Amino acid sequence: MDDHEFRKVLLLMLAILSVHCKCTGSTEPRCSRFEIEERLLEKLVRQEVAMEQMKDQTLVTSNRLEKCMHEVDRLTLDLNSAKDEVVELKKDLAIFKTDIMNTIEIY
Description:
Number of helices: 2
Strand content: under 5%
Distance between the termini: 139 Å
Radius of gyration: 44 Å
């Protein structure tokens, strides 16, 4: 095959590919710039609404956590107070026991 025939075959193949690409390319739907921008804005609005909902949920969760922390602090204070009372009761019981033993020894 000489150079001239090769060019003819190559040109024919390029022509076929070009026609084929035009045919398949033209069947794809095209969106205008306005449609693309409208879709983008709709998506941004949906994301903004979702972010607001997440913000509200985070605030509610934060408030619950703060209440729980206050409750833990209150329970810790109550527990420490109860421990102090138990220590005092043990001391009083030891004194009472000593008094009873002394009273029994006297009689």
